[in-house]
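Hey everyone, long-time lurker, first post.

I ran two proteins through the pipeline my lab uses and got sequence/structure pairs for each. Pasting them in order. The first:
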Amino acid sequence: MIESARIQLNRWQQAAVALGSAVGALVDPRRADLIAALGETTGKPAFERVLERMKRSPEGRAVLLERPRVISAKVGHAWELPANTFGAAYARFMGSRNFSPDDRPPVRFMDTDELAYVAMRAREVHDFWHTLFDLPTNLIGESALKVIEFEQMYLPMCLMSVVGGTARFSEKQRRLFFQSYFPWAIRAGMQCTNLMCVYYEKHFHEELDDVRRKWGIIPAPKQDIA
């Protein structure tokens, strides 16, 4: 599926897609396809570094070998797990927002199948990270998670998303973000484990608090960020 969706671009075409995607995403931040294209066309060196880190990690190598997908057919059992587990917390997060794990756009602009999988994995574990860090999906929550994602993967798109997101903040939101959520996200991203090397699906049955401790996760501050 990943291989069949890919489109080979030369450098000029990549630059054109990146520029067009950046402009389009600023105009309409809800366009997940444009944000995905921006991440792929500007993020190859970052994804290559992520791939090398995964190869050096036993659990990361298992992910690369088995290539699990975060789609309904593979993670649907999370909805049947006990309430205190990581899997059930993920199911509640998805259900409360009427999200489907099948809604992620395909990877189109990676050079190899291996890099395409890493890019898809980064896209698909995003909701696991929301669950683990207890971050909502509003503007401040997404911007804070992009700070953590940048620390974890050094993707230029994450940094651009933070800049674009904060530009749309109200004065109250901007003050709250930079006084509370930004410093928390810096600390949280530095303290936690290498999150791309985690085989999340094999930990669904474990208690949420236990996996947070094991992976060094600091949940987000509890403040009104509406």
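...and the second, right after it:
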Amino acid sequence: MTIPGRATDTDTELLSAVRAGDTAAYGTLYERHHAAARHLAYGLTRDPADADDLVAETFAKVFAALRAGRGPLVAFRAYLATTMRHVCYHRARRDRRLEFTDDLTRYDEGQPYTDPALDRLERAYAAAAFRQLPERWRDVLWQTAVEGNSPAEVAGMLGMTPNAVAVLAHRAREGLRSLYLQQHVGVVKHPECRWAGDRLGVHLRGRLAPRDSNRMRLHLGWCAECRGRVAEIAEVSDMHPPYRQRHHAGSGG
């Protein structure tokens, strides 16, 4: 008979034990994944105290989710990493809104303030989205959106017509934008919410097929949690572009 929480148990067995009320099993998960969590935390924030707080809050949130019957059934570490990224994102937004300072000059109109932690996280999301694009899309997007080359210039590099480059660049930008927004959607348990969550980025960009769009509309009509997720990534869409275009030296930019 397997004793829940024993070091030889699989993560899946330990997760089941936690849901059944065995807190020792979660202690085993904590010991097993704590080092990996700290490594990720140090990639999201450079302050050791902030990293420790981030790890503690993430494990606490996952534990609360499991005790409430939610959270992962398998792939605990992947779920933990996703949760940590979202905790970091929300902490950065909260801290930016609640910051106390005597220096109000940076809040004057025309001098926007960029939170370094939030900016690092957004860059990580953008990089993850970029890696998911097809290779051809990445090539065209890099040359047009990042390097600032014209379709005619890129056409010569890639053996395409300028019109084909322009069309492909448009598709790549839309694909990147959808995938970037998708990085901000957390893991959910309900099957219909998982279906919706996998498509929220595309939905927000207005790119869903008519049949899927109707299904999404019906789902959002009754699911307040997914409506909240849509509102959250809509805010992200307004605040953070997934890339910054470079300008040629002679363009005056």
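Reply from user beta_strand_b:
Welcome! Quick read of the second one: Confidence is low (pLDDT under 50) at residues 1-5, 107-115, 246-253. Residues 11-98 form a domain with the Rna Polymerase Sigma Factor; Chain: A fold (CATH 1.10.1740.10).
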